[in-house]
Amino acid sequence: MSQNPDKPHSSEEKLSGLEDGQEESLDNPDQFIRKRIRQSAPGSHRDDTPKSSPPRPVSIEELMETAKGVTNMALAHEIVVNGDFQIKPAELPEHSLEKKVRDIVHKAFWDCLEAQLKEDPPTYDHAIKLLGEIKENLLSFLLPGHTRLRSQITEVLDLDLIKQEAENGALDISKLVEFVIGMMGTLCAPARDEEIKKLKDINEIVPLFRAIFSVLDLMKMDMANFAVSSIRPKLMQQSAEYERKKFQEFLEKQPNSLDLVTRWLQEAADDLAKLRCKMLPPHCSGDGATGGASALCSTAVQNQAYLKLLKWDHVNRPFPETVLMDQTRFQEIQLELEQLLLTGTVLLVTFSAAGPALVDMPGFAEKIKTIVKVLLTGMHLPSFNLQESLATIGEKVCAEVNSCLSQHGFAPFSAERETGLKGQIQAVANPDNTICKLIDSRIEKFLENYLASSHQKSLPAVPGGLGPIQRELEEIAVKYVRLVNYNKMVFSPYYDAVLGKILTKGESQLVGKSEGS
């Protein structure tokens, strides 16, 4: 049994594992992508998607190749869009069968090694194989210019010579291990110096071997993450083209893989046409549909489609194929905006009730935001009670308002005004709350303007009433627009093709209506 069962995979194996969808830091991307594709596949939602010709039969090999291609695309995408991406060791669930089997095999291996070393004379077969693996690991850390270190490792860890010494009873394994620890200290990152020091305090050979492989795994992880950070700038330049190519390969094997995108863009075009019809003067209502639809352009429809992702029903509706890899990110942004909406509404209600006395008071808005943020933590969990949280927020806000008013020489709220403010805050839970809908529409307008001006250096002006949450809103907007722009960079050819058909079809229908009238 030549491999050390205690150590995680090497960096090369870890990267390969990522490609096969087995890396924990990506939450098992292979299964994740396959599951999401199955969930979002048009065949899985026949009532919700347009009809299309059935896909051609594909072989198991083609499916596996396609799944691997999608997983590789997901990995490249994750590296590019996630600046904090790191390869991490896989951690098995504590009571899982896999972990129990692994622990049993590991124990058997190390018990066998210990038994061999306690024989008289000692048997070094397993120990020599472990030294061979250590030698390979140390050599893998070297750069082409490390000629002297390579010679040292090759000379000291000469397996043929070590075998001869073992056969003749002249092997000093402690001396070899001491060399290994010294070389690891030379090659490791400064962050691993403490682990290297701990190795020198271990006296028993079997625990020392286990600890050495544990530290080697950390070093390999460091090397792998360094490689990822090194290739990120170059990968960013090529990732859009790479993702587009991989998606095209997937599309060729699954021709109906744009059905959800088509429906998504069609709905965006319809929404935009209706919106523009409402904005037409009353005397144009007779041909309002014509006027609204004829003004549509591909960019405006795409922006409207991206805004729809912020109101998506992730439970009951599949996500469009081209944004599937970023569904979690869009959902996080959606949840952040929903919490920010409630925060902005509470602030606006509070300032309206308190009057100008508190508007410019330093630090007051931040205190209210902190209160709201803490009490709305977990607001998207099924067990969260919004009414109770808003009642508590009302109590806390009133106490903070009275405290600030008293500190600055103003009269505190009367019981009647407190009751009114608490009632207004609790009314925020109503979906039809006027103030909440106003704040929501202004947030959406700001994001729409930001999308339209995303290539300009300056941010669009923040609409009135959003001043207290401007910083948080701009942070979310920057993250959102960066995600949208990258998605456009990758998939714009597909969007243009789909929208070309949608907009042409719409114009044809309008021309037919005009000629009929």
**Strand segment tally:** 0
User: How many angstroms separate the termini?
Assistant: 85 Å
Secondary structure category: mainly alpha
How many separate helices? 19
Following the backbone from N to C, one meets helices and strands in this order, namely HHHHHHHHHHHHHHHHHHH
Question: How are the secondary structure elements laid out?
Answer:
Blueprint (H helix, E strand, L loop, with lengths): L10 H9 L9 H12 L19 H22 L15 H22 L6 H16 L6 H10 L2 H9 L5 H15 L5 H7 L5 H49 L5 H20 L9 H7 L3 H11 L18 H28 L9 H12 L10 H22 L7 H12 L7 H19 L17 H47 L1
Helix pairs in contact: 1-10, 2-3, 3-10, 5-10, 8-10, 10-19, 11-12, 11-13, 11-19, 12-19, 13-18, 13-19, 14-15, 14-17, 14-18, 14-19, 15-16, 16-17, 18-19
Description of the molecule:
With 517 residues, the chain is mainly α. It is 68% helix and 0% strand. It contains 19 helices and no strands. It has helices spanning 11-19, 29-40, 60-81, 97-118, 125-140, 147-156, 159-167, 173-187, 193-199, 205-253, 259-278, 288-294, 298-308, 327-354, 364-375, 386-407, 415-426, 434-452, 470-516. Helix 5 (125-140) crosses helix 10 (205-253) and helix 11 packs across helix 19. The chain is extended and about 95 Å long. Mean pLDDT is 80; it is low at 1-56 and 284-294. InterPro entries: Tcp11 (IPR008862). Pfam families: Tcp11. This is T-complex protein 11-like protein 1. Residues 1-17 have a biased composition (Basic and acidic residues). Belongs to the TCP11 family.
